[in-house]
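Quick one: structure for this chain?
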Amino acid sequence: MKIELRNIYKSFGEREILRGVNLTIKPGRTTVIFGTSGGGKSTIIKLIVRLIEPNRGDILIGGENITQLSIKRLYEIRKQIGFLFQSGALFDSKNVFENVAFPLREHTLMSEKEIYRIVCEKLELVGLKPNVVLNLFPDELSGGMKKRVGLARSIAMNPKVILYDEPTSGLDPISSNHITQMIRHLQDELHVTSILISHDIKESFKSADDIAMLFEGKIIEYGTKEEFAQSKREEVIAFIR
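Got it. Here's what it folds into:
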């Protein structure tokens, strides 16, 4: 599913975060957005699911301008988008099964038997054994396992788009590498359009097809990761060194 941001501006109070962002995310590929901390990377993915509104500009998902959609139609679009939050955002009071089953119970009329089958399928897809983790609660999981459970929940509805907000943040190098491999594996298996927000250059390069650089509120570089690595822009060179 193609995603387009056209001349997007966003301010919080008097602070202008995005200053005319133009970006076309190619369907079926993983695009990583790099940038400095607090520079607006996470703002972009919140805008894509319309958790916040732009001050100006258009956001098209599959050709539909979501800034002009009714709430009903927006919810239908959101069902096609999986979102892995930086923290994993699991419900502390629910076990792994209930966490992954949550969107299926909320948005479908599936039987509990079918929900159980899908939950197990998605857990296996992210490298977790259902018979081991189904009844565990978030406080019994490692940081990497929480991210995997969050990822299983984000793909439970078979989304066409997956948004990753700092997926390796707070993880040790081994866990970070496992999550990166999982993102690449899911891309190969599901052929979704993925957007990954990160400051972890090494791990992100492993999972990326394309890379965009956000600097001072604008996209200053965008291309394949090979093209990005050969960029002559001073800001890009300084960032990847």
